[in-house]
Amino acid sequence: MFFLLFSLLSGAGEPDHQMEIEVIGSQYKDIFIMPPKVKQDGEEVTKYDYAPVVLSKMVMSMKTANYYWNANIEGIYNLNTISAIGGDCDYETKPFQCANENSHHILETDIQITDQKAYIAMTLYDEDSMPVASSTVSKKLRRKIIPRKKRTTTVTPNGVAFGSNTNTVCRDKQSCSIQNRGVVAPRNTTGFSTEELEPTIINFPAVIDSNDVSQAVQLLYSNLK
């Protein structure tokens, strides 16, 4: 009787199913790079294609970011490769919504160019469209000024000068004579003057190049929270 009761109590204490815990999420980040927006004097332009250089600099600096700043970046994608993790989501028209649905980060790049200044601004958002890192690199118009001078030479007549030339004339080895000839030559005074001219100004426009993109990427990774 006691053995039967003990057996019933022991069986009642055991669950009839196994407990399972599902962990959703990852400590590693995937980043989708949106096509950079480029504006010149406030107008959007397409003649400057910064997309390849932004992608290459992000990929090249990824290993450094993971090692030095614990960025934990696993993959970087653009419009041509995002289908590997994003499926058929329309990243061209709704990139932030797609990033939310597929749980990855998204990078926005803004490049502005004017006559006096140019800058590149990068902002990295998480899957909830919250900014987690940003960077800005700017350049100003560079100007080189080359001074110019005009040098003028003037010759002023100052009367005449008298002189003589002496020549020795020989008819043969034993018969020679000395001849003196008077010379009259103008006497001039030479002077020099210098005049300052308008300087030559060479303008080097402010343009965002690959080195500026690389610097912006490194700042972005170092600011990653």
CATH topology of the largest domain: Rossmann fold
Number of strands: 9
Give the helix level as a range of percent: 10-25%
SSE class: alpha/beta
Outline, from the CA principal axes? rod-shaped
Number of discrete domains? 2
Mean model confidence by pLDDT = 81
The helix tally amounts to 6
Could you give a short account of the major beta sheet?
7 strands, mixed
Strand content: over 45%
Poorly predicted residue ranges: 1-12, 14-25
**Radius of gyration over all CA atoms, rounded:** 43 Å
If you had to describe this structure to a student in words, what would you say it looks like?
- By secondary structure, the protein is of the alpha/beta class.
- The protein folds into two domains: 26-141 and 205-222, Rossmann fold, CATH 3.40.50; 145-201, no CATH class.
- It is 24% helix and 45% strand.
- It has six helices and nine strands.
- The strands form two sheets. Strands 1, 2, 3, 4, 5, 6 and 7 form a seven-stranded mixed sheet that branches. The protein has a two-stranded antiparallel ribbon with strand order 8-9.
- Strand 5 (105-113) and strand 6 (117-125) form a beta hairpin.
- The protein is rod-shaped.
In short:
With 225 residues, the protein is α/β, with parallel strands linked by helices. It has six helices and nine strands. The chain is rod-shaped and about 120 Å long.
